[in-house]
């Protein structure tokens, strides 16, 4: 019987929701790993809406759960209904929606607040010693909720211009967590906390390398589950 995995989304689209390629990659690797997946998102208004063609703000309002349903092909539930007891693991793809909708990192950085249902979900899986997988900017959720944990968002220096958000590693360290430098096709396993992270689009890399890195994260999560 396959592992039961909850996937938590933050909307639909890199600039104001979940990064679509990351969510899709996670789902493909979970399917290949024989996992039974259910998808969740918080039923809240997005912090903002971005016109992805122009890269500029749009004067409209959107709901995170409704937008996430696009990625879930309509098969999605309110995050408030997620019960950790019904799953073996949880995974959070990245995208700016994580830093805007699941927490306030995009505005407040290390001083951010985490959405109550996101926080309770993370705490429930951690307390039950069930693995948590996070990619791209999502590792900041673990850094904020679990001081002392180990995560990666890639590198802590902008090597060859490939890691433009390398300062995130410093902010993670300032929260009392340990940042582990990893390449885009790798993941890091914090065995003590059962937290698995990979940098994904925090690195400017070919799509297949990002896909492979997410694959290592999913594989490690399934091993721990």
UniProtKB/TrEMBL annotation:
Signal sequence annotation: none
Classification lineage: Eukaryota, Metazoa, Chordata, Craniata, Vertebrata
Top-rank taxon: Eukaryota
Encoding gene per record: Gatd3a_0
NCBIfam families to which the protein is assigned, alphabetical: PRK11780.1
Protein name, as recorded: GAL3A protein
């Amino acid at each position: 019987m396959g592992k039961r995995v909850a996937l938590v989304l933050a909307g639909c689209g890199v600039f104001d929701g979940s990064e679509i390629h990351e969510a899709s990659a996670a789902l493909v690797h979970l399917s290949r790993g024989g996992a039974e997946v259910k998808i969740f998102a918080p039923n809240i208004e997005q912090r903002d809406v971005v016109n992805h063609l122009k890269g500029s703000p749009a004067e409209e309002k959107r709901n995170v759960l409704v937008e996430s349903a696009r990625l879930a092909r309509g098969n999605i539930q309110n995050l408030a209904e997620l019960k950790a007891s019904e799953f073996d693991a949880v995974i959070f793809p990245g995208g700016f929606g994580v830093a805007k909708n699941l927490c306030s990192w995009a505005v407040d950085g290390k001083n951010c607040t985490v959405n109550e249902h996101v926080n309770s979900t993370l705490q429930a899986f951690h307390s039950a010693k069930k693995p948590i997988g996070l990619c791209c900017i999502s590792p900041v959720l673990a850094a904020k909720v679990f001081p002392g944990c180990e995560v990666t968002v890639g590198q802590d220096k902008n090597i060859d211009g490939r890691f433009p958000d390398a300062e995130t590693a410093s902010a993670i360290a300032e929260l009392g967590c340990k940042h582990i430098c990893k390449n885009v096709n790798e993941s890091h396993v914090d065995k003590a906390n059962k937290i698995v992270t990979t940098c994904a689009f925090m690195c400017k890399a070919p799509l297949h390398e990002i896909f492979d890195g997410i694959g290592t994260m999913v594989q490690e999560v399934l091993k721990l589950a």
